[in-house]
Amino acid sequence: MIVGYARVSTAEQSLSRQQDELLAAGADRVFAETGSGKKGAVRPNWEECLRLLRSGDTLVVTELSRLGRSTGQLAQLADDLAERGVGLRILNLGLDTTTPAGKLVYSIVAAVAQMERDLLIERTTSGLAAARARGRKGGRRRSTTPAQVAKMQDLYDKRELTVSEIARVVGVSSSTVHRYIVSDSHRARSSI
Questions:
Q1: What is the pTM of this model?
Q2: CA distance 64 to 190
Q3: Which residues are registered as beta bridge partners of 30?
């Protein structure tokens, strides 16, 4: 039996392309799910897919990344499938682990995929450190302008409006007023 497995990481992504390719490759059954490929991620359809596979079956995926993210994880999967007599085909690589050349190429591709992921993490970490060194913080930029903060402070100091009314006048949420004004005023008073 040929068993296909399709996975996307987020609900915004579509499984349709992968499912179509797997069926075109002769899959008798396709397991599909949305979830991370990280080690330890909960993937019930993947677990069911692995339980179904028997000696002589072939597992088919469209891309190596559908199986996992680390060399160790991918090597362990290849060993497990080989012990059970299950072949593995990766469509976009034209790879078939039932051949000696396919096994070799799978090992090399898994190592390259791991290196690619490690380099991405390294570049991201390096970029964040460089930004911090220049005084930038990570995360989303605040959308509240200095003029809005000044207006909130002025209205708050007059003590004529509630926090909700100030938020409505300035065009921000009550939590924003609390974040910028009420909390700062409370901190200033408690430090006196």
A1: 0.56
A2: 58
A3: 4
Residues with a known catalytic role = 9
Return d(Cα 54, Cα 77) in angstroms, integer: 14
Q: What is the C-alpha to C-alpha distance for residues 97 and 102, in angstroms, rounded to an integer?
A: 4
Structure tokens at 98: 């039932």
Alpha helix stretches (DSSP H) within the chain? 16-24, 44-52, 71-83, 100-133, 146-158, 163-170, 174-177, 183-190
Sign, CA torsion 1/107/72/25: negative
Q: What is the pLDDT along the chain (192 residues), one digit of tens a residue?
A: 999 999 998 888 889 999 999 999 999 999 999 887 676 778 899 999 999 999 999 999 999 888 876 767 777 888 888 889 999 999 998 888 888 888 888 778 777 777 887 888 899 899 888 888 888 877 777 788 889 999 999 999 999 999 999 999 999 998 989 888 865 554 444 444
CB 61 within 8 Å of CB 33: no
Is 162 in a helix, a strand, or coil?
coil
Rounded CA gap, 17 and 53, in Å? 23
